[in-house]
Amino acid sequence: MALEKINLEKWKFAPGEEITCLEKGREVTIPHTWNVEEGTEEYWGIGWYCHSFVPEEAWKEKRVRALFCAVYHDAHIYLNGEEIGCHLNSGYTPFAVELTAGLRFGEENQLVVKADNRFSEQMLPFDTSFDWANDGGIIRPVELLVTGKSFLKNPEVTARPVITLRDERQDKGSAVFGFSGMIDSAGDEEGLFMEWSLYESCDDAEADAGRKDYGLETSFDTLECAFGREGQRDTQKPVCEGKECITAGKAQIPGRVLPSVNYWHFDSPCLYTLKMVLKRGEEILDRETVAFGFRELRVQGREFYLNGESVKLPGTEWMPGSDPAFGMAETKEQLEKMLLILKESNSVLTRFHWQQDDRVFDWCDRHGMLVQEEVPFWGMLDPRQGAGRAEKHRLHRQGPLPPAGLRRPPPAPGQPGGLPGRRPAAGARLPQGGGQDRPPALPLPGGVFFERTGLVRPVRRALQCGSRLLPLLFPLQVLPQARSGPGL
Question: CB under 8 Å to 58, separation ≥6 — which residues?
Answer without folding.
Answer: none
